[in-house]
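hiii, so i know i said id send this last week but things got crazy w the move. better late than never?? heres the sequnce for the chain we talked about at the cafe, plus the structure i predicted for it. fair warning i was half asleep when i ran it
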Amino acid sequence: MWLWWVYGIGVLFVVVPVVLLLAVWIVRTALEIARYARDIVGDAELLASRLEPVTGLERTAELAAVAREGTTRYVEALGRRE
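okay and structure toks below
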């Protein structure tokens, strides 16, 4: 019977504090992850707002392709004159 008392005291003074320390560590880590996630969401929103003008790059690429064709023809014409 006294072994049950020793077991109970061991659980009370060893296992319970270890479980509580692990629980506190897990909660702190989860809160830190949540803080990082909020920072990431804020930065992603800022990045998204700054990327809105990128849609205009498609038109710029089209105009550059047209200019490249004209430039190529011009260079070829200069080569024929020499």
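btw The mean pLDDT is 85. thought thatd interest u
miss u guys!!
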